[in-house]
Every structure is written in structure tokens, then in C-alpha cells.
Design goal:
heterodimer, A: mainly alpha, 70% helix, globular, B: 269 residues, alpha+beta, 3-methyladenine DNA Glycosylase II, Chain A, domain 3, Alpha-Beta Plaits, two-stranded antiparallel ribbon, two-stranded antiparallel sheet
Chain lengths: 195, 269
């Protein structure tokens, strides 16, 4: 139990996907203007990353590694994740229309997201078991969501600020993102990471 | 090497077949008219119709829960196109544009304070009621211009002005203005009262050189009370847009100079 808690704290705070690993910076800057859309995006990322981790773990352990093909896993993962997200999109529209209405427009955006691919790569490199991998991916996506929500909250306030002209818009957002990243660096050493 | 190629190709093939099957058996077939109606709408997603976007309005139109003609941006041409697709009658709508009911420029309307805060009307209005002497006038910090999806509003000399050609009548500026002095008026109307201060003449005069003093001269010059071209709210004249005055001479005779002929301007965008 405490082992999973360590994974959770480690993935959300210490090694936050956006703020310390710098994965998923595109949606971090792209959909963080409003808290509402940030929430939708976070939900979609949590969903896709958890499912993608499960699928890529199976693919890696049952198809690639037995054939000595560990070196092409990146290529295989891109292929599988892209197809998987498309499939989820179609299936969700049919069976879960309310969920699709909330997350639908974000699904195509994360088809080739580096956070989703990154989590599969990390799982692969660490060689963890199935449940650990899936839980780590879920926690990492949660960390992405936390970072995105904090950042969107700040950006909503930032919209009312009056920075110098050259800093307006994305420039001041990037500086703010950097400061947020620095703040999260303060969590390093909070837990002793299992890996 | 061969195994690698075969496995990657195999994964691709399985994924392709799965997606093809899913598309055939799982996908939801939407009413094709939704796509057609969405294409016929202007696609500005301004929200003026009361729906989240053009797509939402198109769905409501096809479902029959929304009246045709609620799209201010598309106007009659759009309503006619939608009517053609759905086979229902279009409700004729008059194009409406935003009007800022104030003409108190920096030289005409006095400023009682020196405001250096955030450049936004809502913030300025929350800071001791704003720096303008007139509690009803345009603050000129561009809250309306910031929300305008068509960049049709520009702030000139401390006063917001609407470009009639660009305005699509979505009404976003109407709700953005903390003073509530923007109004949607028929685009064909040419004479407007550019003041929103309902107080008595002397009180208006104290804060603005061009405020309406409620002298009723415009009403008299436009054929008296029976003609019904103007209505009065306290000491403020308002044009009755259901029956607008046509004689442009009326405007020239306004002693307060707040009755104007077509004040809409071009913002140059």
C-alpha cells in the first residue's frame, strides 16, 4: 500500500510529468487558458494514459520482448497508441455519449502526445510489473492534470494583469510556467523513489 | 530484421482492421442535416444565438427546438439557407448592431480621478466607481473591445466606438460593459441618443458637456409626443427604435449635442 502511495506522490509532485520531466508541454501551454478546458483535457489525459500504459505493457511483454525486438518499441507504441485513441473515440461516442461530449474534442489532440508516449517509454525502461506500470501511468497523468489546473488558474488571473507589451500573452505564460516548475523542484527529496 | 518488419506491419494491419470494423459497426450516424446546417451558419461561434457555438445551434435547429433566424451574425441570407435545408419558413430578422450610448470624450466629460490601474472597465468601475465624473458614461478601458470577436470596437479618445460594418450583433459587448450602456439597435436606424445619464439637466451638465438634459426638444421637433419617435426615461431621451425618427434635422437641433446622426465609425480593421 505504502509502495503505491510513494509512486503516487513521486509521480504527482516529485517527478511531475510537465514540470520536472518536461513532457506534454504542448497541451500545458495550449489548453491552459481556461480552467474549464484544462479540466476536460486533464480528464482525457488520465483516461488515455492509463489505458495506453496497459496496452503498451502487454504489447511490450508479450510481443516485442519475446521476439528480441525491444529496440523498436517506440515505433510500435506510436502506432498502437494512435490507433487506440481513435478506437476509444469511436467507442466512447457510441457507448458513453456524455463522457464523449466532455472529453471528445481533446481525444484527437492527445493521439500523438509525448506525455502518453513518454509514460509507455518510462514503463518499458523501468521494467515494472503490469499493475505498477498502470498505476504509475495513472499517477503521472494525475500529476499532469494537477500541473495543468494550477497553471490555468494562474493564467486566468494573469489575463487581467498588465505586463509590459513585449511580455504579453505566451511570453509571460512561459516565464510563469518556468517559475511553477522551479516551485515543484522544491518537492525533490520528499519521498525516496523506488526507481 | 524480417521479424521486426513483419511485426510492425502486423500491428498496423490489426489496428487498421479494428478501426475499420469499429467505424462500420460502432460509429454513430448523425443526421446529415446537422453538418449541412453547420456549414450554412457563419461559423463565428459567437454565442449570440444563446447556444455554445454554431454546432450547438445547428443541432437545436435540426431537432426543431430553436427558432430559425436567431443567428445575428448570418442575418437573413443565413436564415434563408437554413430554411432551404430544413424545409421550414425563415423568420425575417432585422440586422442589429451594437451602439455605445455615450459621446463624452475626454475633452467633453470630466474625469474626477487619475486612474492608473489595470486597463479594464470592470476593474476601473470597481475602483471607487471609476474615474469618470458621469456614473453612467463610457469609461473607455475597452472591456467591450476585448470581448468583440470581430474586432469591431475601438476606443478613441476615451470612448468606445463600434464599426457598423464589422459588427455581427452577437451582444457580447452588451454584457461585458459594467455600465450597461451598449445596446443592440437596428442597423437601419440612423439617429441615436448618445447618452445614458437619466439625471436632471444641471446634474448632467456638471459632469459632461454633451449629456442629455431631458429638454424634450428632440421630441417637439420630431412631431411632438403623439408621433412617438422618442421615449423618456427620467430626464433621458431614448429613440423609439420601433418607430425611429427619419428627419435628420432633428439631430442638428439638439442643444446638448448628444443626438447624433449615425455615429458608427470604421475601425480600420
Amino acid at each position: 500500500m505504502s509502495y503505491y502511495l510513494v509512486i503516487l506522490v513521486g509521480a504527482v509532485l516529485v517527478n511531475n510529468f510537465v514540470l520536472s520531466r518536461f513532457l506534454g508541454c504542448c497541451p500545458f501551454l495550449g489548453v491552459s487558458k481556461k480552467t474549464e478546458t484544462a479540466l476536460g483535457m486533464s480528464g482525457a489525459v488520465v483516461f488515455v494514459m492509463t489505458v495506453a500504459a496497459a496496452v503498451t505493457w502487454c504489447l511490450d511483454h508479450w510481443l516485442l520482448q519475446p521476439n528480441g525486438l525491444g529496440y523498436i518499441h517506440t515505433l510500435a507504441f506510436i502506432l498502437v497508441i494512435a490507433a487506440l485513441v481513435q478506437f476509444i473515440d469511436i467507442a466512447m461516442k457510441r457507448f458513453l455519449p456524455p463522457l464523449h461530449a466532455a472529453l471528445g474534442i481533446f481525444l484527437p489532440l492527445i493521439t500523438t502526445n509525448c506525455a502518453v508516449l513518454g509514460v509507455a517509454e518510462i514503463n518499458c525502461k523501468q521494467g515494472t510489473g503490469f499493475f505498477e506500470s498502470v498505476f504509475f501511468s495513472f499517477a503521472a497523468a494525475l500529476g499532469f492534470g494537477v500541473a495543468l489546473l494550477i497553471f490555468s488558474g494562474i493564467r486566468e488571473k494573469l489575463a487581467h494583469a498588465d505586463p509590459p507589451r513585449c511580455f504579453r500573452g505566451i511570453a509571460v505564460a512561459l516565464v510563469t510556467g518556468g517559475l511553477l516548475s522551479l516551485a515543484f523542484m522544491g518537492f525533490s527529496g520528499l519521498v525516496k523513489l523506488p526507481y | 530484421m524480417t521479424t521486426a518488419i513483419l511485426i510492425i506491419a502486423g500491428i498496423g494491419l490489426v489496428a487498421a482492421v479494428t478501426l475499420a470494423v469499429a467505424d462500420k459497426y460502432l460509429s454513430v450516424r448523425e443526421d446529415p442535416r446537422i453538418g449541412l446546417v453547420t456549414a450554412a451558419l457563419p461559423g463565428a461561434n459567437c454565442g449570440g444565438c444563446g447556444f455554445a457555438g454554431c454546432d450547438g445551434y445547428a443541432r437545436a435547429l435540426v431537432a426543431g427546438t430553436a427558432p430559425n433566424g436567431a443567428c445575428a451574425a448570418g442575418g437573413d441570407a443565413c436564415a434563408a439557407a437554413v430554411a432551404k435545408i430544413l424545409g421550414v419558413a425563415a423568420t425575417a430578422t432585422e440586422r442589429r448592431v451594437a451602439l455605445v450610448r455615450c459621446c463624452g470624450t475626454r475633452s467633453e466629460a470630466i474625469r474626477v480621478g487619475d486612474y492608473n490601474g489595470i486597463c479594464d472597465c470592470n476593474v476601473a468601475a470597481a475602483t471607487a466607481g471609476g474615474d469618470k465624473g458621469c456614473a453612467y458614461g463610457c469609461l473607455g478601458y475597452g472591456a467591450c473591445a476585448n470581448v468583440c470577436p470581430k474586432h469591431a470596437i475601438s476606443v478613441v479618445d476615451g470612448l468606445a466606438k463600434v464599426d457598423k460594418r464589422l459588427c455581427i450583433g452577437c451582444g457580447k459587448c452588451v454584457t461585458a460593459c459594467p455600465r450597461r450602456l451598449i445596446e443592440l439597435v437596428p442597423a437601419s436606424a440612423t439617429i441615436h441618443v448618445l447618452c445614458a445619464n437619466p439625471e436632471k439637466g444641471p446634474a448632467v451638465r456638471k459632469v459632461c458637456g454633451v449629456g442629455c438634459i431631458g429638454c424634450h426638444l428632440c421630441e417637439k421637433n420630431a412631431g411632438g409626443k403623439e408621433a412617438g419617435h422618442f421615449v423618456f426615461q427620467g430626464f433621458l431621451a431614448k429613440v423609439n427604435y420601433a418607430n425611429p425618427p427619419t428627419d435628420e434635422q432633428v439631430a442638428a437641433k439638439c442643444p446638448a449635442k448628444c443626438l447624433a446622426v449615425d455615429p458608427h465609425v470604421e475601425t480600420g480593421h
